[in-house]
Each structure stands twice: as structure tokens, then as C-alpha cells.
């Protein structure tokens, strides 16, 4: 993609972010510190201060992700609210199933995702009018029908996916052109990064999400954060 084409995509993205800031306050950006989210972090931190950035600290993230969190705070001087799992629920889960019980079944894995991600997300979105994600259509079969915006009936607010039409190359072209910090695991063949025990490196040619919950069928590879209830 030419620099002019990328600039056009960035301008379209900024138009969406400006609309969110002006018309959907209070709005928040759910930042998982992946490559896509770093594009949004760079723009929001520099140009859209009324959009609040938060993250879900599951307690099982890779050290590289925590290192990037600190690098973002140092570089952009922004405050990022971290929402953590309920301590009592986490203690109960580990007592019943062990620290790695999520490998035993999809149900146990989803239970772990619920207490470490979904429940904290509910707290993060309470009272908000909109939330922003870094999801893209080409990331997974579960995301191939994403739209830039849609009403999120589960949380009672608008959900924006302003990068949904961006490609992997678009994301990395932006990161390189603007010298945006990113997770060191990306250089070790981790295109999609979540909790440490549920994320692995991939080999050339594998789907970008194949390193997430690699023991499961691709059709089930969501943690519950972005699944619409029917």
C-alpha cells in the first residue's frame, strides 16, 4: 500500500474517532496492547483525550505485555485504567480446577475467560455510551462480518471497530511509519497475544489467530468479550 493510501485510511479512522469523542461521550477504548490496539493508542493518546483508555489485566498476561503497558505510559503520559478479576471468584476457580484447569475443556476455558475478562469488562463499560475495539475482519472466521459500528445490546451501548477493514499490512505500515511501540512478542511470531498460557507462537502460513487457544476448533476461539448473544 502506498503512503497516500495509508494516509487516506488514517484520515477515515480519525473521522470515526472524532465522531465518537464528540457524540458518544463518555466513550472508552478497550486496549489489549496488540498491534492493532497500538495504532489506536497512538492516535487516541495524541489527539482524542476525551476517549478514556482501559485494559483488562487478567493476572496471566505475558511479561512483554506489562513491559509495553509501562512503555505506553512513559511515552504518552496517559492514564490507563486496569480492571482486574474479582479476587474471590479467581481463588474459587483455582481451588476447584487448578491454575491451568482451562486446558481440560472448552467450558472451563470459557469460565476462566469470563471471570478474568468478561466480568471486568462489564465493570469497565458500566455507564458508558460507546466502546472502541481494535478488531479486524481478517483476524478470524468469527470476525469476518464485523462492521465499523453497531449497537451492543449485551452492554447497552454502541460498539465501534474502526479498524475492521484494515489489513495486517496496514497496521504494521502505520506502526513503522509512526515509530509506535509494540509488544516484543510480535517479533517472535506471536501475531495475536492474550494470556500467556493460552497463547503460543505460530509458524509461517498459519492463521494469525491459530496461536490462541490452539487446542480448540477455530469456530470457538473467542473469549466472550465480542460474542453477541442470540
CATH topology: Rossmann fold
CATH superfamily: HUPs
Question: Main β-sheet: number of strands, strand sense, barrel status?
Answer: 6 strands, mixed
Per CATH, the class reads Alpha Beta
Shape: globular
Sketch the topology as an H/E string, one letter per element.
HEHEHEHHEEEH
What's the total number of strands? 6
The CATH architecture would be 3-Layer(aba) Sandwich
Report strand order across the widest sheet.
3-2-1-4-6-5
Strand content: 5-15%
Please supply descriptive tags for the structure shown above:
Rossmann fold, 6-stranded mixed sheet, 6 helices, 6 strands, 39% helix
Give the structure's gist in a few sentences.
This protein has 230 residues and is of the alpha/beta class.
Architecture overview:
With 230 residues, the protein is α/β, with parallel strands linked by helices. It is built from six helices and six strands. The chain has a single domain (3-187), classed as HUPs (Rossmann fold). It is 39% helix and 10% strand. It has helices at 3-23, 35-47, 63-76, 87-97, 106-125, 168-177, and strands at 27-30, 52-56, 81-83, 130-132, 149-152, 157-160. Strands 3-2-1-4-6-5 form a six-stranded mixed β-sheet. Strand 2 (52-56), helix 3 and strand 3 (81-83) form a beta-alpha-beta unit.
Amino acid at each position: 500500500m502506498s503512503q497516500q493510501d495509508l494516509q487516506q485510511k488514517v484520515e477515515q479512522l480519525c473521522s470515526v474517532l472524532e465522531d465518537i469523542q464528540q457524540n458518544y461521550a463518555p466513550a472508552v477504548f478497550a486496549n489489549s496492547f496488540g498491534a492493532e490496539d497500538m495504532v489506536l493508542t497512538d492516535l487516541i493518546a495524541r489527539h482524542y483525550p476525551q476517549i478514556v483508555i482501559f485494559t483488562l489485566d487478567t493476572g496471566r498476561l505475558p511479561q512483554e505485555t506489562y513491559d509495553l503497558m509501562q512503555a505506553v505510559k512513559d511515552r504518552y503520559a496517559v492514564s490507563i485504567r486496569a480492571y482486574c478479576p474479582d479476587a474471590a471468584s479467581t481463588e474459587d476457580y483455582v481451588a476447584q480446577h487448578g491454575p491451568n484447569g482451562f486446558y481440560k475443556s472448552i467450558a472451563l476455558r470459557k469460565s476462566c475467560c469470563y471471570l478474568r475478562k468478561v466480568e471486568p469488562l462489564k465493570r469497565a463499560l458500566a455507564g458508558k455510551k460507546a466502546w472502541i475495539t481494535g478488531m479486524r475482519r481478517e483476524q478470524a472466521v468469527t470476525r469476518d462480518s464485523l462492521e465499523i459500528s453497531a449497537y451492543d445490546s449485551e452492554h447497552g451501548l454502541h460498539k465501534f471497530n474502526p479498524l475492521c477493514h484494515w489489513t495486517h499490512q496496514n497496521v504494521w505500515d502505520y506502526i513503522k511509519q509512526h515509530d509506535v511501540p509494540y509488544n516484543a512478542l510480535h517479533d517472535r511470531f506471536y501475531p495475536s497475544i492474550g494470556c500467556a498460557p493460552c497463547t503460543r507462537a505460530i509458524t509461517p502460513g498459519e492463521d494469525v489467530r491459530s496461536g490462541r487457544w490452539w487446542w480448540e476448533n477455530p469456530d470457538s476461539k473467542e473469549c466472550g468479550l465480542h460474542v453477541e448473544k442470540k
